[in-house]
Every structure is written in structure tokens, then in C-alpha cells.
């Protein structure tokens, strides 16, 4: 049951991330290859970086070759419904929050199966949750969302900590997942709703 739940949420997450990447590709007037690749890199990039850093092979998309196709075609499908996307903004905010939380939890799990330290587990979760978006923003010549004042990396780190605590306090893995997801998604959506930010550093000589 846990595996099926994780898999279902993971598929939803990579599709949502691919579609949001496709919208950015459209704003930059990329061709179809650019849309396909940006969707793929955004959805699967964080997990790939994590696996390389942790020497965890094969990579998830190598083990499941359907994932690049799912993300790529989800990005291309976005082209056909792009003009209606403004009506689905709230839905995409929710799906993006789900993606961030699911990727973070899965990154933590990978590090935990390797019996790594607490710090490495939290960093693994953040890399999985955030680095796909960093790659997307770099390729689009933009400052990554992770490095701005918006609470994105903070949500990922906090979710990883909650999940790690639950793994020691709760025996049921489904409950661990549910608690971490409720916390992470609520934190992310509340930060958007009330415009919570971290202090900014501004230096001008």
C-alpha cells in the first residue's frame, strides 16, 4: 500500500513539475524539443543529482524508462491547454506543493536506506525536492527560486525534519508519509497565501 501510494504521488508530482516547466518554456518561446527537455530535466533532475552524489544506482529514470516519456509528453501536452492554465492556478499551486513534499520525502528515504547521517538525510531530501527547479531556472537564465526569499527550500528542509522525526516516533509508514505531507503542503500553501518570506540580504557599496 505504501509503495503504491508513493508511486501514485510521485507520478502526479513529476507530471505537475513538467507542466510548470513547460509554461516557463512557453514564456521564453522555446521550440518543442526545448519544452520536452525542460519538462524532463525539471521533473527528474533533482533525483538524478541526488543519486549521483549518493552513488545510488541505477538512476530512477534509468530504472524506470517510462519516466522521461511521461514528463516529456506531459510538458508537450501543456501546449494544448496553456491558454486555460490561468483558471487552474490554485490547482497547480497545490500540485507543486505536493511535488516538493513528495520529492523531499523520497530523497530522505533514499539517504535513510543508505544509513547516512541525519544531516545527509535532510540535505538529500532538499536536493531531491529543489534541485530540479534550480536546473530549470538556470537553463532559463533566471535566479533560482531556491535562492530567493520565498519559502521553498525552507519548506523542504522542514518537511525532511518532520519526516525524519516521524520515522523514529511512528511505526506505520503510511502515517509517517501522511504527517509529513500534511505539514509540508500546509506550510508551503500558507507561505504563499500570507507571503511569508525570509529576511533579505542587500549590500550596496
Automatic annotation (TrEMBL):
Domain called Glycine transporter: residue spans: 9-81, 94-167
Primary localization class, coarse: membrane
Topological category with respect to the lipid bilayer: Multi-pass membrane protein
Subcellular location: Cell membrane
Keyword check for Acetylation: no
Keyword annotations from UniProtKB, A to Z: Cell membrane, Membrane, Transmembrane, Transmembrane helix
Transmembrane segment boundaries: 6-25, 32-53, 65-82, 91-112, 118-139, 151-170, 176-196
Signal peptide: none
Domain of life: Bacteria
Entry's family note: Belongs to the UPF0126 family.
The protein's name: Trimeric intracellular cation channel family protein
Amino acid at each position: 500500500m505504501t509503495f503504491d501510494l508513493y508511486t501514485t504521488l510521485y507520478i502526479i508530482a513529476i507530471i505537475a513539475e513538467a507542466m510548470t516547466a513547460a509554461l516557463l518554456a512557453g514564456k521564453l518561446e522555446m521550440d518543442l524539443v526545448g519544452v520536452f527537455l525542460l519538462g524532463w530535466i525539471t521533473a527528474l533532475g533533482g533525483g538524478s543529482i541526488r543519486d549521483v552524489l549518493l552513488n545510488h544506482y541505477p538512476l530512477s529514470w534509468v530504472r524506470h524508462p517510462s519516466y522521461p516519456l511521461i514528463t516529456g509528453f506531459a510538458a508537450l501536452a501543456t501546449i494544448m491547454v496553456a491558454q486555460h492554465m490561468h483558471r487552474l492556478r490554485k490547482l497547480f499551486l497545490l500540485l507543486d506543493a505536493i511535488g516538493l513534499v513528495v520529492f523531499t520525502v523520497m530523497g530522505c528515504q533514499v539517504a535513510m536506506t543508505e544509513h547516512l547521517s541525519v544531516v545527509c538525510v535532510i540535505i538529500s531530501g532538499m536536493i531531491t525536492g529543489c534541485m530540479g527547479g534550480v536546473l530549470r531556472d538556470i537553463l532559463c537564465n533566471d535566479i533560482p527560486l531556491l535562492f530567493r526569499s520565498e519559502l521553498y527550500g525552507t519548506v523542504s528542509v522542514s518537511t525532511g525534519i518532520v519526516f525524519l522525526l516521524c520515522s523514529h516516533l511512528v511505526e506505520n509508514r503510511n502515517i509517517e508519509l501522511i504527517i509529513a505531507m500534511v505539514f509540508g503542503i500546509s506550510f508551503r500553501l500558507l507561505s504563499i497565501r500570507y507571503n511569508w518570506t525570509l529576511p533579505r540580504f542587500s549590500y550596496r557599496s
